[in-house]
Amino acid sequence: MRRFWKFTRKGMLYGLALLIVLLAIGFTYQWASARHDWDKYKPVGSQYDVLGHKMHIYTGGQGDTTVVFNAGWGTVNPYVDFYPLYDKIEKDARFAVIDRFGYGYSDMTDRKRDIDNIVEETHELLKASGEHPPYIFVGHSLGSLETIRYAQKYPEEVKGIVLVDGGSPEYYAKQSPLTAISLFQRFLVRSGVARALYHFDGFTESVASERNGLKLLPDELKELDRLSTLLRANNRNITDEMRQSQRNAQEVVKGKKPLDIPITVLTAGSYGKAASDWLESQKALPSWSVQGKQVIVEDAEHYIHHYHPERVADEILELVNG
Fold it and tell me: Per the database record, which ranges form the AB hydrolase-1 domain (predicted)?
């Protein structure tokens, strides 16, 4: 028995040593590769000074109304994410894609990721970039919180809201933040595990399963999505945004309701079927507006705009032209 335990301890020590060596190799692999990747990771839009740091905004289109795109939590590169919608609205409206701090091509910040800080930063970025109301805000997923809060804080600037499978403030106010998941995903990136997995066929599509396997993106944007993930995913700003999510939702719940603007709630027909609380909250979400409506988009997962961008664009333009 003594020999068995001696052999077992020795095996555990060898295993621990091997794990340390593999981790050291992985972290070095990620560090060295990231240095090369940063050279290729250049802003596609413009950066502006906002409260001491650079924020990025990508704009295009034409018209008297500006559609402001607000990505969901953890969607690292909003420019890539909303790509399927640009050509469908650019002839009828101007558009602006916001990179919150920690996302896309915006800097990191030391400001806590509470809802009013985020909304203030968005407001300052829009002003600094020369954009002007009226705005139609489009919020995806957890981005619904910043979208609704912006309308609460600056009601004279917002003409309408489209929520793309955006959750209700009441729903998020009851959800415990998934901070541990964010930290684990950050470890996978920084340890080089995620970078190594991208070399396996099918990994990209599996990671992007809710985004229709990125089928609507050209190859160069698929590559940009990979770079963005390996350089920025689950950084401290993004993780803190998740950490603050429940408190942020509770703050929105305490604000004005209903809003005096139309809100269109797009709900993915293929998402959340087993989560009755999510589906019930989606039905109730239009009550946040005096002119609220819900539209079920069948054959779509959480990122509806990667399955049926034409449906999303039609609802946006209905508010633009309304």
Answer: 66-177
